[in-house]
Amino acid sequence: MPVENGTAAPPRDKSPAEQQLQQADNLAAGPYPGQAIRPYRELLELEPAHVEGRLHFARLLDRLEESVEAVEVLSDGLRRAPDQTEFLVLRGAILGKLQRYREAETDLRRVLRLHPSHAPAQFELGLLLWRRGLVQEAASCFHRALEFQPDNAKTYYYLGDALNQLGDLPGARAAVERALQVSPDDAKAYHLMGRVLDRMFLPDQAQEMYRRGRELAGL
Asked: For the whole model, what pTM was predicted?
């Protein structure tokens, strides 16, 4: 809390936009996240340039499988701020899931032209290439993402998957081991490790990984 002349300054009142964002975020995190749609819309009507509100709204729409509308929300933001990095990365990620690969790649490469060390953009580009079956190029992007964000379990997981597909089994094993160090309760990573160990002719260790993965997944 700020201190003026030895006395704590009173807390600043939240603006109407901040209050609206908090209300929407609370609803989005609750048991009925769809109830947050209206307050997010009202926030953007109040302040169309509100970056955080637009991002939170787009993420919620994507989570609710309203991905096309999420793209529209981000596109509207980009018409106002064409180089807003977070809008571009999120729109690229959602477009990739929608299999609109060319548009997605355009967004992500635009970010990387502006910010070559942007780890989330490198990861999302790698994921896009992985979905397209361009596994070698995807692995390169995952490696670059880890240069700038070295403790990201999700990136290590997909790097491990890519290296497994490429036949680099020691590299895949090392990547998944790192993923499990960072996120030891990831059932998918244990399953992937089982697949890698199976291919390395280590069936007993592979079965142990499968077992732990099933336990964590509640199967």
From this structure: 0.87
